[in-house]
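Ticket #4471: structure export looks truncated?
Reporter: QA, pipeline team
Priority: medium

Steps to reproduce: submit the single chain below to the structure queue and open the exported record.
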Amino acid sequence: MLVGTGAFALYLLLPPLPVRTPDLNKGAPVALVADSKNNGKRCEAKAYCFGSSYCDRDFTIDPHCAALQKRLLDAAEANDVAAARSAVAMGANVNAPGLTVGRDWWIKSIHPAAFKGNTQVVSFLLDNGADVNDVYMCCFTSKTPLMEAIGGNHLETAQLLISRGANVHFKGIEDWTALRLAEQEGNENMIGLLDRAGAMSWRHRAERRLVKLYGKNPRDHRYKFSD
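Actual output as written to the record:
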């Protein structure tokens, strides 16, 4: 009886076993190719625009850098590593936002790449210094690249981001976390990944497993394990 009770307790409390992370080795950063347009300098980590019609006081008018950042963003969205590499070699900054196609708003390339599950581009951007925990704030939401990958249900991309140091405990607007987002999406594989990465408390884990066993929320009866 004690053995059975102990095994049951271990089942409730122990995190799942680890899984293999994507086999993507870190690459060397792309060197800047100096020319008359970039004057031997990479674009700074700030927002650029093409002209005054797109600018306000928070943006810098620089058609060259604006074009490079848009080129990098387009490459990230299209999962085109070669085009991303070319943009970075010409002076694009992986931590500067680009202007999205057909929209008057700016976003850093790692976010759409993560949301679309473009794992190779995400790896390339991280190799070249992209902030793995960059926070994109828009439309009453705030998301990290990890949360973008979870929102797009891309497990391999999420694995890569976590292996590169993504913060699984980040809380956005209205206390949204990566785990809460994964639970909303109902992606059990993603939930397991986050649990292995330390995102889930033992109480939360026990509660979820009791639900699986008994088919109802333990918050409604004597199993009261929630934080």
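Status: closed, not a bug. The export was complete when the record was re-opened. Leaving a note from the reviewer for reference: Confidence is low (pLDDT under 50) at residues 220-227.
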